[in-house]
Amino acid sequence: MIQEKILDFLKRKPDYVSGDQISHRLGITRQALWKHIQILKDSGYDIVAVPHLGYRLISSPDRLMPLEVTRELNTKFMGKKIYYFDTVSSTMDIALQLGIKGSPEGTVVLAETQTKGRGRLGRNWFSPKYKGIYLSLILRPKILPNQTPLLTLMSAVSICEAVKEKMGLTTQIKWPNDILIHHKKLGGILTELNAETDLSRFVVIGIGLNVNNDKKTLPAGATSLKEQRKEKMSRLDLLQEILRKIEANYLIFQKKGTKPIIDKWRDWSVSLGRRVRVICQKEHIEGEALDIDIDGGLLIRNDAGLTQKMMAGDVVHCR
Ligand code: BT5
User: Is 92 in the pocket of ligand 1 (CB under 6 A)?
Assistant: First the structure.
């Protein structure tokens, strides 16, 4: 894409780049270059133009625009196709529609805000504009529908790895889908399966993460990376790393099966070894969270010594 290439030129040089040089290298007229620069400026790029000197990039907008996300992403299939929205009801709805229409594996839907962002069981996901990462991605794994929860675990591991690598912060996973820092919720994962027919079978992974939310605007019990690090963080850097890690872990999952993912998951888990209460619809079980089963279920030993498995639910840590 031509605008991407123009940005590449401008980003490589902190100084002015001559319009002649750019238009010559890209094989476009100076008039066409000027038009593309106007489009970039309209999208929030601060670019100055000085006669005889050329163009200079002063600043980029804090937006998760596809041309920025794909820049130096270096993935095989993840994020090769990105749908970007300023405002949507829920990125899940868009991704589910795209999946039905046959969008390929690795398709990503991003939004700056969601009016009906959702969690599990129709719960709400608070998605303030330009503050967090709200994304849904399509996977087409060759697994049985009952193995879908493993993709939630794989995504959780990928988020923890990305936050550690890019932000230097250690997060923890509360089974099945919460990402925590210091026992406060930083993010959540929502996995939805479309298995109406064999042909349209696909999974949408939804990820919501609080990045630059100020403490006072967060829901009770929640935190953000900004609150933890006391500074504004790059949503773009983190998003790119999450996509890279999900791709890497998904490839491991496909080649080597569940074990390496579950092994990694155990390292990030805050639930294992603790006394927990798991609530699922009207049922609840209390006991020690022993381990994760091969299908992603949580194994709990109750006070009578009986081990039971939960495939879904909300975990409360008792002590
Ligand atoms: C989740 O559900 O944690 C999964 C959230 C997935 C959100 C993403 S955003 C992109 C994609 N598009 C969507 O529409 N959804 C996905 P659950 O475990 O059910 O937790 C929901 C609960 O978390 C709510 O009932 C609140 O208590 C709490 N909550 C809501 N917004 C939050 C936020 N921004 N930060 C922390 N906690 C929040």
Answer: yes
